[in-house]
Amino acid sequence: MKLFDVYPLFDINIVKGRGCTVWDDNGQEYLDLYGGHAVISIGHCHPHYIEMVGRQLDMLGFYSNSVINRLQAELAERLGRACGYDDYQLFLINSGAEANENALKLASFTNGRTRVLSAEKAFHGRTSLAVEVTNNPKIIAPINDCGHTTYLPLNDLAAWEAELAKGDVCACIIECIQGVGGIRLATPEFAQGLAEACKRHGAVLICDEIQCGYGRSGRFFAHQWLGIRPDLITVAKGIGNGFPMGAVLISPEFKPVYGQLGTTFGGNHLACTAALAVLDVMEEERLVDNARETGSYLMGQLKALQASCSHITDVRGRGLMVGIELDMPYKDVRNRLVYEEHVFTGCSGTNTLRLLPPLCFTKAMADEFVARLKKCLDAQ
Ligand SMILES: Cc1ncc(COP(=O)(O)O)c(C=O)c1O
């Protein structure tokens, strides 16, 4: 059997990782500013993570959601404390798309409505509802195109308020820092106005923190920079540091109903243990603070490079979620970074390099990256 060929691949086989470094099967070392697409939060193969997941695997890998799993309750308690949402409830699943899928279902179960407002350039995943609220017609199959969604410009509060005033909106879903959309930041005025308008018109506010959350922005959640408390918060990626996991944080106003939501694998013993190990390391190594401090240092160095390099037209982001917009397609620069300078980065659109390193990234690594990027841009 052949693989179903849906991914354009770098011709590189990564076989080992430690911290912010990965190695290929020839022993070549790479600096990782991609983190496997924002998934690696505490760094590759952290010893505490290996120890805890290994020990749990030895004890019990999986049972089912029909029996008590104390690890889930422990995770809910620890996560609530770490992110400042002790009074919220936690529903555990396996991926980001599933988190958004369940958040949208819960919103619709609660207010009985079906219309969703989403942002232009939004990305929320590839399952039925998640892809329907994603602003990319190329990945919405006809079967997903059910007409539930109106896309509006991020930060155009008047446009969102006008739609909400029609009284039929089930939910508004936003990324407070758009990832796939090119590191676009929601403003506090927009976020606060939207939260207030959602309350006024009976709509549910969902913040998709799958890429920008879990410490990446320099606060636990990116929306915490904006002074709002969403009704539902979706997370995935960094929560398990590579162990597939997603979650919905649910405000106390939502009352659970037996059987309404469910999953076979979600919240299994191994996933919860991975998530607990992640929280241990985030706290022990103060990784949210590190994301804020190192991220602002990295942005400063990139802005300094921009001042002397006409190829960089913009540097934007927050914490360790940074976009570098170029005056040309990113493709050649990104390839040069990988194959000549041995640095992994992400990308968005056609011209933006997207940086999503593990949250243990250091200032020395930031300097190293900026020097290697400069070499690539000078060669263009
Ligand atoms: C903001 C955002 N939401 C949702 C998703 C979907 O997550 P998953 O691929 O785990 O389904 C992604 C993935 O890149 C994302 O960046």
From TrEMBL:
InterPro entries cross-referenced by the UniProt entry: Aminotrans_3 (IPR005814), Aminotrans_3_PPA_site (IPR049704), Class-III_PLP-dep_AT (IPR050103), PyrdxlP-dep_Trfase (IPR015424), PyrdxlP-dep_Trfase_major (IPR015421), PyrdxlP-dep_Trfase_small (IPR015422)
Cofactor(s) essential for the protein: pyridoxal 5'-phosphate
Pfam families (alphabetical): Aminotran_3
PROSITE patterns tied to this protein: AA_TRANSFER_CLASS_3
Domain of life from the UniProt record: Bacteria
Keyword set, alphabetical order: Aminotransferase, Pyridoxal phosphate, Transferase
One function term, GO molecular function aspect: pyridoxal phosphate binding
Family stated for the protein in its record: Belongs to the class-III pyridoxal-phosphate-dependent aminotransferase family.
Name of protein: Aspartate aminotransferase family protein
Lineage: Bacteria, Pseudomonadati, Bacteroidota, Bacteroidia, Bacteroidales
